[in-house]
Amino acid sequence: MTAQVLALHRSQTHSFSKSAMPQLNLLAGLGVEGDVHCGETVKHRSRVAQDPTQPNLRQVHLIQAELFEQLSRQGLQVSPGQMGENLTTQGLDLLALPVDTVLSIGDSARLRVTGLRNPCGQIEQFQAGLLAAVLERAADGRLIRKAGIMAVVLNSGLVRPGDAIRVLLPPLPHRALERV
C-alpha cells in the first residue's frame, strides 16, 4: 500500500479532538494555518507554562490509521481527528521513522519529524482505557508511546486526503524518536 493522507483536522481552540477539513494549508516554520498550535514558539499549554520562548517542535501532529484498527481490536473506538491529530495517515509506520525524516506530501508540503507525541491524561478523559492502550511498557521497562508523532513544516503547501506521502530518510546514523 502506498503511504497516503487519509484525513485532515484542525481546531482553533485547545480542544482535545479536532474537526475534519477537506484540506489543510501547511505554513513553513509555523504549522497548520488556523490551528491553535500554529506558531514558531510552543503553543501546547504545558510547554508554554515551562518556557513560552521554546521553539515549536509540535507544529503538526500525525497518527497512523492502523492505530485505530489496533485500538478497535482492544474494544476502544477512536476515529480520525478524535485524538487531536492534524494528519491521519495510512500505509506508513510513523513510529518507526527516525528523527529528522522528511515527509513530502502533495505538490509542495514538506514536514520534518521531530519526535513522539507524549500522551497525557486528556486521552484517558476522552475514553477510559485509552491512555494505557497508547502508552505501554516494554519488558525492559521502557515506555512505548503510540499516540503519533510530531513534526515541523519545512515547505508550505496544501495537503488533501489521498495525497501520497514520500519518505526521505536522514543520513545515517539514524536517531530513534523520543518524546517532544
From TrEMBL:
<dbReference type="GO" id="GO:0003824">
    <property type="term" value="F:catalytic activity"/>
</dbReference>
<feature type="domain" description="MOSC">
    <location>
        <begin position="19"/>
        <end position="168"/>
    </location>
</feature>
<dbReference type="InterPro" id="IPR011037">
    <property type="entry name" value="Pyrv_Knase-like_insert_dom_sf"/>
</dbReference>
<dbReference type="Pfam" id="PF03473">
    <property type="entry name" value="MOSC"/>
</dbReference>
<dbReference type="InterPro" id="IPR052716">
    <property type="entry name" value="MOSC_domain"/>
</dbReference>
<dbReference type="InterPro" id="IPR005302">
    <property type="entry name" value="MoCF_Sase_C"/>
</dbReference>
<dbReference type="GO" id="GO:0030170">
    <property type="term" value="F:pyridoxal phosphate binding"/>
</dbReference>
<dbReference type="GO" id="GO:0030151">
    <property type="term" value="F:molybdenum ion binding"/>
</dbReference>
<protein>
    <submittedName>
        <fullName>MOSC domain-containing protein YiiM</fullName>
    </submittedName>
</protein>
